[in-house]
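Supplementary material to the annual report.
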Amino acid sequence: MTDLHVVFSVAGAEYTIPAAAVVQLESYQGATPVPGTAAYVAGIIQVRGQVIPVIDLRRLFGQPSAEATLDTRVIVTEQGGRQVGLLVDKSREVLRIDSAAVQTTPGLVAESSRGFFAGVIQLGQRLIMLLDLRKIVGEEDLNEQFANRFESGFNDAAALPGREPEGVAGDDGGAAPEH
Amino acid sequence: MAESGGLKEFVSAYVVEAEEHLETASTQLLAIEQALRLGGANLRAQREAFRALHTIKGLSAMVGVESVVTIAHRMEALLRASDRRGAKLPVESIDVLLRGVRAIQARVRAFGEGKAVPLPDVELLHALDALDTEHGNDPDELPHLELEPSLAAKLGALELEQLKAGLNDGQRALRVDFKPSLERSARGVTINQVREHLQRIGDVVKVFPTSQPAGPDEPGGLSFVIVLLSPAPLKAVADAADVAEDKVQILAEMAARLPVPGLEASLTAEEPLDTSADDLHVPQRGVVRVDVSRLDDTVEGLSSLLVTRFRLARAVKALRDRGVDTRELEAIVNDNARQLRGLRAAILRVRMVPVSELLERIPLIVRGLRRTMNRQVRLELESGGAEVDKAVAERLFPALVHLIRNAVDHAIETPDERVRRGKPEEGLIRIECSSRSNRWLEMRISDDGRGIDPAAVARRAGVAVPATEAGLLDLICRSGLSTRDVATTTSGRGMGMEIVKRIVHEQLGGELTLHSELGHGTTFKLMVPLSISVVDAFSFVCGGQRFVTPVVTVEEIIEIDPREVVEGLALPGQRPIKLVRRRGRAVPLLSLASVFAMPASGLEAKALVVRRGDDTMAFAIERMLGQQEVVVRPLNDDLIKVPGVSGATDLGDGQPTLVLDLLSLGANVSSRRLELEA
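Predicted assembly:
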């Protein structure tokens, strides 16, 4: 089975994710930093009227951030209705990749990569890492995150499965402690 | 002063009520027109329109907007005259009447905004009079009224005419003195209600608001002198106005008033019954009109409840950590959470308005366009029973108007062209709404017109032909791009789509999509949230970054005088807390940039003071930028949900700006400190 994949580079290495999970590519004009978020969250941007978080893959992979260039792109991904942007150095290529060509991640790399890689693709001289998008955007940690936040008390109202749990603070001018 | 507040409320209630009746009037006029075009008559619509105008006249007389009284009176007379003739208005009269509605609307708004109310347009009055051929003046002499000259002088010619006609009909001109009081308003008796009650047993000619200086045994304030015509006995009038019988005086009656046998008896027998039935049904339609700001107060109250609940939950957790059995407490806290959730949903529902109210205003717009553009258009409206927050409805409407204008102006072909293309002469515009997953409203605006030609649009913009419909949409939403050479009065120069896009994306945080088939028509699909939150916010700079925070959370903005800042106690392993003197009290001063671990850039010259309960805190910032209304979009993603940040907004630069919740940030800072202390 072959699927389209979007290929991009981060700090000199090449990575890819399935094109099916990509909504669009945006050039990067900088994100609005959100204080108190994880170091690898570059901030928020507005895409087609939506506000979405952007993950700086350089920082996620333990590299220093780079100055934005004309090549810098935000890859807007979507999974289960949740949109997250990935900040990459460059992305110019869409490849058709045969699932049979995906090899398992070498043990040493897998250990140091916190499960970010779903496999490796060898293409002639090139070595492309297939990313596990769910791990990257933290989908699997969601429940744990919820639990943590409830403990610290800040998601109190938001944790209630209300009709629109996120709105109260904004509605009244932000006196609720949920965010 | 309570009285002036009352008067202000009075004016805004007048504007709201008048607008409502104006809407009824125009809807009914359109219904009459449709019936006339089909060769029939719509008696019911005509009476409804008459009633609406009559009410507007009465309301306007009460607040003293004479020019509205004059216009409404002529319109009303025209409708009444035609009713007497057998219910057929000339078709051309609808145009004039709609002009009248617009003229009244403009004057009501001017009055509501405290501007000078223009005099009635003479040409309009002539046009109305010309249609009302039966309207004639009775040359009889004016009756003598037992009224203070100062008040009598304020009666306009129309009112005197009305009094004269009423007296000729055998009614009495009466004066009622009504004084609002706390006790009365506690029972729900207001001037509006009294006027309504009196209107049922007579005709209110004029209401004079008068102000009274405070006397030795009575507080001063606003009172009203009501002049009305009624055949009812004084007692019935006094009861209707909730005043003692000596507050009702006869101003004039015809000397040769013939007693009408049975009339007095039947009125005395019926009226008290009527009024008591009324009292049982005080909220007649079960509808209460509420100022949105009062709803906001309620939401604010709710959010302080949420803060309390959050503290309660923490306290319970602390107990549990100490090994206390908290199962019962936890059950109560959970119940409390569920109740708060219900309360919140209930409050949000109160703010919802039916989308059908929005759609009802469309036919009038299309009617105007149809006439100026020589297009024949049929409208199909389907609200799907959807409801949206009032703030969404207010923003959505202009976008809807732009799309409709574009459809009539650009999309629907002329009747000839349509026939040549084998389409029905009449174009079709269809608006369809439905709510999706309790959070989104989907609205489709389709036409069966010529469709959008990507090649033509691209040629005009000087770019390559867009490959997708999304690309085409982006292109037609570009500023200043028009596929027309000539700007028309209705659609301007293609700025419309840019505005639509901005409203949908920026003001509502929604999505706009397009589907177009060349030669067959275009559909725009809008997805907008059912509710948004708009807050009045301060914008400021901190750590070199721009932020906004709701005005309501800020107690005060102070200048930081370095001489007033002292270093407080330093706990082991912590930097000392700074304190700033404010009104004789020492308030903790925190650099917002350092709370956020941002590089402090520049001098922190100002501070925002916030208070939570007894806890006051000042957040030092670099400088203030201004104050504006912002639409707050929640930050839903877990990656960016952090304490102190309640959402994001667009200040118009396309970059999100963070909305800070300094209250919860303050709470977070203090609890972090407490944890460190423990």
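Chain B touches chain A through 74 residues (CB under 8 Å).
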